[in-house]
Amino acid sequence: MTLTAFRRDVSMPWKEISVMDERLRFVSRLLGGEAMTEVCREFGISRKTSYNIFDRYKEFGIEEHRGATAFGDGPWECHSPSA
Question: Contact, 54 vs 45, CB < 8 A?
Fold first, then answer.
């Protein structure tokens, strides 16, 4: 039987998480002393990407994140080189 067979709304047990919130969690773990390699593995990102995120945090700080409304807003955006 599928959930649609019940004919009722079912709330999902997980929360929606923004990209920016995930980046802040990532930075927080690095600042807490965890190893870059281990945190990258758990978040499923490359070390190159992780250093981009961490360097932007060090350059612009948390306040720049608070002003960003979506992925791509402000200095926390990770740019990939144009082809």
Answer: no
